[in-house]
Design a protein that fits this description.
This protein is an alpha/beta fold and about 300 residues long. The protein folds into 2 domains: about 35-115, Leucine Dehydrogenase, chain A, domain 1 (Rossmann fold), CATH 3.40.50; about 140-285, 3-Layer(aba) Sandwich (Rossmann fold), CATH 3.40.50. It contains 11 helices and 11 strands.
Length: about 300
């Protein structure tokens, strides 16, 4: 068996076109969705993500606001900015980009965001609604996993879904989203592994969603024949030669490559379908964030 590689880029483009059509319809009513990012300081990773959000806003026709106070801004300064964004009718969704400087509390900032503008489900109110099966804004990455599976025609009812990793950002919400679709869900994590119990769960999964942040964690022997595997991981690792030695670039530094949490080549031998890394879940995640902002805009304008 050789797994079919799921074309996540095609899925992302499909969603993008759907969003663009809805944006055009809203513009006909004088309404334009918008996203504001909140970046305190100049963290490299956060700055790169900010640029992506701005790019995708442009592609789907959203307004974009870059709120970027200096790294030494006080918590009161940042809270003032959040208040302004909460009240700005041009801003449908607010996306806080972390990490924040040490003087800024994540919890204080997130809890101050209007729950109807919390487009990545950071606020406890929206996470609580997710747990109750009354989801307003599903977190973008777990939502991307579910969207991919739905567009692949997966029937969740009674399906054995195992989620590897129990983070608040991916693992827990992915499990809840699957459970809310009547799947039979199991969550395995580092403590499951330490107890020696991971494999008995993963090998029983019809669908395996892996978001542990460990490169090549899931191997062939841990996957049921015919399973669908969704790999959320994005990890940079050194390129090794046949002897296991690092391959060097022209400057004498080790070459690196991006891999997922799944040992792709060997798992392809047993899985029926798998998402690639790179070019996999991440592509759909970006569009799910846009989809949430579109929904937020409709809520704020009382549009069904």
């Amino acid at each position: 068996m050789s797994a079919r590689v799921i074309d996540c880029v095609a899925i992302a483009n499909e969603i993008k076109e759907e969003i663009k059509k809805e944006v055009e319809a809203l513009k006909g009513k004088g309404i334009i969705p918008g996203i504001a990012t909140l970046l305190v300081g100049d963290n490299f990773g956060a700055r790169m993500y900010r640029g992506q959000v701005e790019k995708f806003c442009g592609e789907v026709g959203f307004n974009y606001v870059n709120a970027n106070p200096a790294a030494d801004a006080t918590e009161a300064d940042v809270m003032g900015i959040v208040k302004e964004l909460n009240e700005d009718e041009k801003v449908s969704g607010i996306l806080p980009l972390r990490p924040f400087p040490e003087q800024i509390s994540d919890t204080v900032v997130i809890n101050s965001i209007d729950v109807n503008k919390d487009i990545d489900c950071f606020h406890p109110y929206n996470m609580g609604k997710l747990a109750l099966g009354e989801t307003t804004f599903p977190p973008a990455t777990p939502a991307a996993c579910i969207e991919i599976l739905e567009r692949e025609g997966v029937d969740f009812t009674g399906a054995e879904i195992v989620v590897v990793g129990h983070s608040n950002i991916v693992g827990k919400p992915a499990m809840l989203l699957a459970l809310n679709r009547n799947a039979t869900t199991t969550n395995v994590h580092i403590f499951t592994a330490q107890a020696g119990n991971s494999d008995k769960h993963t090998t029983g999964a019809d669908i395996l969603i892996v978001g542990a942040g460990v490169p090549n964690l899931i191997k062939k022997h841990q996957v049921k024949a015919g399973a669908i595997v969704v790999d959320v991981g994005i990890n940079r690792v050194k390129v090794l030669d046949e002897k296991g030695e690092p391959v060097l670039n022209d400057k004498g530094k080790p070459k690196t490559k991006t891999v997922g949490d799944v040992a792709f080549d060997e798992v392809c031998e047993v899985a029926s379908a798998i998402t690639p890394v790179p070019g996999g879940v991440g592509a759909v995640t970006n569009m799910m964030l846009m989809k949430n902002a579109l929904k937020a805009c409709k809520i704020q304008h009382r549009i069904d």
